[in-house]
Amino acid sequence: MAQPSPTSTQPAQLCITAEDELFDEEFLQTWRREGFQVTYIPFQSDRKSYIAALDAVKHGLRVSEVYAIISFGDAASFCLTHYLKLPNTNKLCALIAYYPTAIPGPASQYPASMQVLVHLANQTVNVHYPPSKTGHKATVVRKQVGPGVGIGDRLALGYAAFSYVGALPGFAEHDLEEYSRIPAQVAWSRTLGALQRGFRRVAAVDLERVWDEMQEDSEASTTTASPPPSALYTPTLQGATGHHPLQDFYATNFHAHRPASMRLQLLSRTVGADRVVDEVLITFRHSQPMNWILPGVPPTHREVKIVVVSIARLCSGDGRLYSEHVYWDQASVLVQVGLLDPGVVPAGWPRVQRVPAVGGEAAAAVLAGGVEGETKIKPHLQYA
């Protein structure tokens, strides 16, 4: 991820700071894999010594070079306040705060040149409001962190902040009981994006190119490095975890072992800080066993047309595959191969005239850009 500037031979400097003398080694190692020079600094009660340790990270940086800080807990609270003051932000391009115990008030503004990102868990925080008038005192209000706007839970603050109301403080640290994989990964992706913007860098590798190459070569899509790569084809619970199992899964289900009739058409692609999301039209004649989509079903020799969404999470530092999650409408597949008849409603549902499932019409609607009017989808939920 962190490519040095053209005049530098050093990786981007990243400081991670938290209360304990030792920190989650897996978290530190993940950022090293992304190409950062990682320095860990424990939070200190002696504020002058602590500030000196933080400032030491930027010593030796060249004129065009900058650094970033990822902070946790009380260290995050201190950094959020300390770096509100413009002189303290020299060469600091990004400040990330995980579950701070205190945050600046909603109207607080950081320098536009610095990326600021705050991750808040299900917790209470002290919100510091500056004096409203000259001669007035600053106020502190204790508040419970609640849901934010939309499914992303963005909070209405003067700086980027998100709530993870289903997680507790510590959710991003692998060595704590509070660790929670899903919010940790969401926060990590947001953090990586903020750092990329702060350092004004793109991924060290072209994630789009790497992902395309992986789809043609099962060996390239796996690695023996930790953590082990995984793939999950959710509708059928097919997939594998680990270098050799995943290599075998891709090799036996795709590459040279897919039907000759199979065609793939990319409908859309979104490339993020650490992932590639593909929307793909897949068509094939079910002329051979296909365990990834129809496990245990002998060839029906029927035509199938579906839209598949694939989410590949990759290391932006070296391009290794972390995981692939794949989704599609399995009911549509079953209708097309004759295993599901929408006109046959199970007993016990006398008011339902039709099972709400469609066949190849679903993919056709995507290709056509949608359906004409709301009435197009209503007949599948008719009542007597």
From TrEMBL:
Example GO BP: polyketide metabolic process
Protein's organism: Aspergillus violaceofuscus (strain CBS 115571)
Spans annotated as Disordered: 214-237
Protein's UniProt name: Dienelactone hydrolase
SUPFAM superfamilies reported for this sequence: NTF2-like (SSF54427)
